[in-house]
Fold this sequence. Notes:
The structure is a homodimer.
Chain A: H1 7-25, E1 30-31, H2 33-40, H3 44-52, E2 58-59, E3 63-65, H4 66-76, E4 83-88, H5 92-99, E5 108-115, E6 131-133, H6 137-144, E7 148-151, H7 155-167, E8 172-175, E9 188-191, H8 194-202
Parallel strand pairs in A: 4-5, 4-7, 5-6, 7-8, 8-9
Antiparallel strand pairs in A: 1-3, 2-3
Helix pairs in contact in A: 1-4, 2-3
Chain A binds a DNA duplex through residues 6, 8-9, 32-34, 43-46, 48-49, 51-52, 56-64.
Amino acid sequence: xxxxxxxxxxxxxxxxxxxxxxxxxxxxxxxxxxxxxxxxxxxxxxxxxxxxxxxxxxxxxxxxxxxxxxxxxxxxxxxxxxxxxxxxxxxxxxxxxxxxxxxxxxxxxxxxxxxxxxxxxxxxxxxxxxxxxxxxxxxxxxxxxxxxxxxxxxxxxxxxxxxxxxxxxxxxxxxxxxxxxxxxxxxxxxxxxxxxxxxxxxxxx
Amino acid sequence: xxxxxxxxxxxxxxxxxxxxxxxxxxxxxxxxxxxxxxxxxxxxxxxxxxxxxxxxxxxxxxxxxxxxxxxxxxxxxxxxxxxxxxxxxxxxxxxxxxxxxxxxxxxxxxxxxxxxxxxxxxxxxxxxxxxxxxxxxxxxxxxxxxxxxxxxxxxxxxxxxxxxxxxxxxxxxxxxxxxxxxxxxxxxxxxxxxxxxxxxxxxxx
DNA sequence: TAGATTGTTAATCGATTAACAATC
DNA sequence: TAGATTGTTAATCGATTAACAATC
Lengths: 205, 205
């Protein structure tokens, strides 16, 4: 039970889940902490320790039922139901996200796309969503109760967008703008900046 | 000097650099570990400790010259010159990356785009690059000596693409496919999977 | 039974923080 | 000088690993 789960443990669970879903897809019925660790480049002890925070999911001598562990991780991560995600920004990146097929079955669906560019408002995206005026953002989020949003606007607009999202009730933001956001306590933010990731590697070259 | 810098320290440097470049853009000439820490939600002690691995960049009583520290971090991260980046995959995401303006000035430029879809090969992208046949990938990389690549292909092709890249001499891969890659020792891989990032937050909701 | 693998404990390892002398 | 902030040390805190009893 969530005594106090370290963030770093929570951060690994989605990676475990992703690998396990892939195993399930490959019709592997059973796996072990050793096998999973090899696939992921993580020690088997760490996998067992991480899982032990949440319960006992394996069998001595046998390992883990892949399907069962997938179910459990989905439940733990709260992606056993689907979250509606508001997307702000309908530029190249925003549209690529709107079209991305990888959200399905993993707990998320983009339910609305906003932009403040008159040239983009009204645009019909593949998948059926139309780009809405950002001025409708607060109302739409408040009415629908969406808790998760993605920000794909230019850096100089990202903080203002985040402020509006949080004020409308959003509690988790995935930010693609290359800037660190300042948000209230309890609001979660994750960052995706390809340049940051690239720079983490060039150091070693 | 690089005794043995912890990965986790290297991982924070690009975030420091990003914030400092922003400060420079805002014409802030001086900053302190305290101010930078506040912006980033990190303790001032950690920032000073991290920087101390590489030298002494500040002045007691004053703080850090923003421009100077930017220069130093760019040098440390080896992004004071520009890396040519090969991009594999010209789907929605690949094209969004090819059009992305955020690489400029931060050490990277996409120099080639590959895809194996005949319908996409030859396509002219904004910015002037044409999509090349993946069959040319190995030769092109070997001839040009590119060391950095981004992978934006479907999950089931990503490992094969990574293998080809590494074989051709690539040493750093930014992987957008939702799968953990297996690569030889010494090859760096970073992962961007929006679903993983979202799942890291829903746990707390 | 023999072999395998879990869940957990204790030991090790590493990272963060607090504190402060040095000094601008 | 008085105030501020660095770079660094030592203490604290937390995460990883190794080892193994339990048991399938």
